[in-house]
From TrEMBL:
Keyword tags: DNA-binding, Nucleus, Repeat, Transcription, Transcription regulation
Biased composition (Polar residues): 206-216
Broad class of where this protein is predominantly found: nucleus
Species of provenance: Elaeis guineensis var. tenera (Oil palm)
Name of the protein described by the UniProt record: Transcription factor MYB62
Length: 309
DNA sequence: AATCCTTTCAACCGCGTTAGT
DNA sequence: CACTAACGCGGTTGAAAGGAT
């Protein structure tokens, strides 16, 4: 490398190299070359194909965009669930996570995490790497996804962006003067913050395990929602409101091709979709990808302010 | 209609790892 | 074993698109 630096040949190559978005002609050239010679040896490919791109750029274009088995479209609830689950296990190991989502690239998963998941952390003013946020994901977001996964099996119309649901919302689990009530489906207790989460104890919980109570840091009595000076959102008692979707439209549809994810990957990880499918507590809302409504978010915020962790 | 702002995602970059010599 | 090139991964950037004002 260094021996080339400064040489005419090197400068010529550098000047000739194209950057930025790929054109249709370049894509065609790359596809044709790989069809004839196969993948790999990217620098050689870059030289021989006639593309004025680096081997690195060719590889990326092929793996992230042109490869035939790349799945386009929105991530299905199951895929989102897998990402959240695997990220909690492995952190930012994007390529490793991508291996469990056929047709999805590490880049796509990384983008999903940054644009959707981290955005919610920012909205909540919680560090995306904190235990608080991880628990919030497990306790609120993942159950929502599980509901959707269950619903999508029996409600193909979910793929319709105009689809509405007769099911209730999170409000149905929130008493007029208290936090969300536990999910009626036992499977949901796995994620329910007051019974299953690891990092903090539920405020106001009367029957949680003593082993998880925070003896060192007494938790405040859970106040009525109306007692907060700032108060819950104006539409607390109203219809679902989502701060992530309000003011910015989020696509409600998942796309037909996003629904046919092979469920094997979930099973392999030790959980099954059917195990967690909501029963009569099927409170799917119409929030789209923003899976928490304002009440949930506000409540998580309060947990944070109480020093719940 | 024009401008500004926000979001998304394709593409780039740097660095660590692996393979070849 | 040392060196080099290629590869792959994760972080970051910036252009495009769409929504808000």
């Amino acid at each position: 490398m260094s021996e080339k630096r400064g040489s005419n040949k090197y400068e010529e190559d550098k000047v000739d190299l194209r950057r930025g978005p790929w054109t249709l002609e370049e894509d065609t050239l790359l596809i044709h070359y790989i069809a004839c010679h196969g993948e790999g040896r990217w620098n050689l490919l870059a030289k021989c194909s006639g593309l004025k791109r680096t081997g690195k750029s060719c590889r990326l274009r092929w793996l992230n965009y042109l490869k035939p088995d790349i799945k386009r479209g929105n991530l299905s609830p199951e895929e989102q669930f897998l990402i959240l689950e695997l990220h909690s296990k492995w952190g930012n190991r994007w390529s490793r996570i991508a291996q469990h989502l056929p047709g999805r690239t590490d880049n796509e998963i990384k983008n999903y995490w940054r644009t959707r998941v981290q955005k919610q952390a920012r909205q909540l003013k919680i560090d995306a790497n904190s235990a608080m946020f991880r628990d919030a994901i497990r306790c609120y977001w993942m159950p929502r996804l599980l509901e959707k996964m269950g619903s999508s099996q029996s409600m193909p119309s979910l793929t319709d962006s105009n689809a509405t649901t007769t099911a209730g919302t999170m409000e149905q689990m929130i008493t007029p003067h208290g936090p969300p009530q536990p999910f009626s489906n036992p499977a949901m207790h796995y994620y329910y913050p007051f019974e299953g989460c690891s990092s903090y104890d539920p405020p106001g919980s009367e029957n949680h395990s003593p082993t998880t109570s925070s003896a060192s840091m007494p938790l405040p009595q859970l106040p009525n929602l109306s007692e907060f000076s700032s108060g819950p959102p104006d539409n607390y008692s109203g219809a679902s409101f989502n701060p992530f979707t309000s003011g910015h439209c989020v696509d409600n549809s998942y796309g037909l091709d996003a629904m046919d994810l092979d469920p094997v990957s979930a099973t392999q990880l030790g959980f099954s979709v059917s195990d967690y499918t909501m029963g009569n507590n099927n409170c799917v809302d119409n929030l789209g990808d923003g899976l928490w409504n304002m009440n949930e978010l506000w409540y998580v915020r309060k947990l944070n302010e109480w020093g719940g962790i």
